[in-house]
Amino acid sequence: xxxxxxxxxxxxxxxxxxxxxxxxxxxxxxxxxxxxxxxxxxxxxxxxxxxxxxxxxxxxxxxxxxxxxxxxxxxxxxxxxxxxxxxxxxxxxxxxxxxxxxxxxxxxxxxxxxxxxxxxxxxxxxxxxxxxxxxxxxxxxxxxxxxxxxxxxxxxxxxxxxxxxxxxxxxxxxxxxxxxxxxxxxxxxxxxxxxxxxxxxxxxxxxxxxxxxxxxxxxxxxxxxxxxxxxxxxxxxxxxxxxxxxxxxxxxxxx
Length: 255
Fold this sequence. Notes:
With 255 residues, the chain is of the alpha/beta class. The protein has helices at residues 2-26, 54-66, 78-85, 155-160, 172-180, 191-201, 228-240, 245-252, and strands at 33-37, 71-75, 92-97, 111-112, 117-126, 143-147, 165-169, 186-190, 207-209, 215-223. It folds into 2 domains: 33-118 and 217-252, D-Maltodextrin-Binding Protein, domain 2, CATH 3.40.190.10; 120-216, Periplasmic binding protein-like II (D-Maltodextrin-Binding Protein, domain 2). Strands 1, 2, 3, 4, 5, 6, 7, 8, 9 and 10 form a 10-stranded mixed sheet that branches. Helix 2 (54-66) runs antiparallel to helix 8 (245-252).
């Protein structure tokens, strides 16, 4: 009798263990899903501690449309993020990025949402210089201010050949300061960041934006393929964002 009881208990434990493993293997979605951003500059991440910035507003916007705490934005440096992305257990999204930046131009490695906004990298000089960018070769002989750790196609290649002097800073806003002081000839700065700067300083007349930018691109969200459920949940909302006055008001608040 006692032996039979022990066998029943043992069988129950095995069944419970098998159930737990199955649930773990199925990878039940844990909420909120993390949304990582690495652009530590306004308007995207203004203050990571108080969660101020467009990337945080995005998660709050999605949560309001779903009526639950579905997404949560956090800052993570790009190098650490790229390392995490290589792991099979990476259960998070990356916001404000483009397939080309992650070597996925054909959009085969990851799932990519519709754009959350359109942006461009402006080539900015002083109003006195009024430099007009045509192509990377038009920068020959110039001293250019760029963001540390970022790759700029066509420009970095000429820097490597010693034909352009590159000066790195930790902030695009620092490059605007260097332009004012005449320490660099031109800088490449996101239009969204420049608009935010101009909103508070109102001295854009001292700068000149080249008619042609260095680049134009959509900012989207990268989603690992095993998070198909997340993609199916948020992408329809993102597709409607260009016509949603609430989201348009969020974008306008940073301009």
